[in-house]
Amino acid sequence: MAAAQPTRLTDQLIKDIAGRIAKGQRVRRTLPPGGRIHIDRQLPFLFLYRPQQTVDPAIAGLIAGEASYLIAPARVRARGWTGRLIERVTEVLTESFGGFLIIEIWDAMDTAGTARLQTASFRVIVDKNWADSATVERLSSSLAGIRVMKRNAKVTLEPGGRLSPTGLPLVITRQRARDLSARYIGLEVAPIYRDAATGEEFPLLRSSLARQMDTVFRRTAFEFARSETVHRPLHYQALGRRTFVRAVVDVDRALSTVAESFDLLMTVTPINAEEAFRAFQRSRYAQPPMFRYRPRTIDPALGKRAVYSAKVERIEDPTLEYVFREKQRELDLKLTLIGERERAGFLPTAVALYGNVDSHLVELAASLTQLFSRRNSENRAHKVDATAFAARAESEFEAYRMVNPAMTGRVIVRDDIVSLMVSAGDLLVGSGMSFSLQRVEPLIQHEAGTHVVTYWNGRAQPFRLLANGLANHDELQEGLAVFAEYLVGGLTPARLRILAGRVLAARTVIDGATFMETFLTLRDDRGFSARMAYLIAMRVHRGGGFIKDAVYLRGLLKVMDFIKAGGRLDTLFVGKMAAEHAPIIEELLRRKVLVPPPLRPSYLDMPDTHYRIERVRQGLKLEELTDR
Length: 628
Prior knowledge:
The chain is 48% helix and 11% strand. It contains 24 helices and 15 strands. The strands form 4 sheets. An 8-stranded mixed β-sheet has the order 1-2-4-3-5-10-6-9, sandwiched between helices. It has a 3-stranded mixed β-sheet with strand order 12-14-13, with helices on one face. Helix 10 (300-309) packs antiparallel against helix 11.
């Protein structure tokens, strides 16, 4: 149960706060009027903002994402009380760590009272005898690495300058700070997030600055902890906050509810794909197929209203705010895509959502279709039907349930789809499908070992969005799933050739090709069978130009680059994410905001897996992934 919030400032309140800190308990209290203290756990630092009149949300927001911060009450009579509180907190934490760091932040104003807005700039003020310390050097150099509006920040170091804002005394006297083994840094920030003349706020610029300063603050605290205290954090990101405000839960719920209210693939996939192919075949491939779609399960306008009613701006943590803002934009695009199905706006929205198909990827795809000709790549091995495939998939599901009973996904054979599809942790199998025997295991690992595992691992996290998928997760998901096929020795030339064909087909759609033009390009120019050319063309033309299929090959390249750069595959299974989210996921794991994933794909423990990963790490080329 949350502690009752105080209605006035008393010495008993200081005693209560200090007592909780001494016990290692979390402290989060409102300090009227307008103040707040948040201390996640025992840490050897505190970020401080003391407003002179009223709290400025912009400057307060620069420290509100930290694990230990104090926004002082905005009242002259509260200043003495604030000093006593900080002194007591310092005493308690110095006993634990042997040292304590206070960084006070304020905004820079010129003599006329208007903000200097030329570029991001900072003044770092410290005592002369500490100016050359590792902590100050780390703060200064990290601030210099900040970029805003394509400009590098300017940093000025002022040893011996005034350590507190104009008009305010030091919160702890220099002598008392020395007695407590405490260090003090004053940090003046030019408020480039506000127009100097009009006072108009630039909220996205402020968010960008806050996110970069969050990293700066943690790096500085890490340096101080390791050089001047007995605390030995393993990584600077481990000093981030572990708890989050109610707004995070509310935003996650709101966005996840919208994400779970529709299935984009089901919405844009024809329900008559097989029937349409038979008619196309009867016409001797002269009459383009007519596709029919499921009724839409969501009103895009109402969905967007819900997406943007989520109060992302209330999230204090800059990292989480960034992740949720990304998801808002992606959901906006997906809802637009649903609304534009079979209309002219569908294709440009799909390009905005999944990215363009650039010339480098097209050239690579073209070379693969030539390298792996139809004659030596198409497989005519023994086939298994949908029921037999589903039985094998069910045994894989059961193995995961033994590890994590919360995994309740099912394998379902359905008549209304013509492919394999994972939806909300279930594996859907088209009833008319058949599979070559050598492709069964690779496809099981593609669907169950990747898409299903990441869904249920995401469900184990405190944020539902990791199950539904962070923004732009499709590329990495599909790339990782294809990489799983390679790890089990099942990425055949025929399979890689199909993925290359999808890229080429997607490019034709972007270039304005009709279904027939795409089909003929694949069949006549690229040598695909009529059946395969139809399936690829159907996939990229569905809905009006669903070019998502280009992400399979592009995603596979991303996974290979990730491994070559020394990335850990285990990170990518925490939930559904983009490759760019891997550092964020690792940060949140170190902060213990996320928990280790309960499920591990079975293919990662197969005998040849380590050898195959090392081959990629050593520079294996894409075309060398196939098992011929």
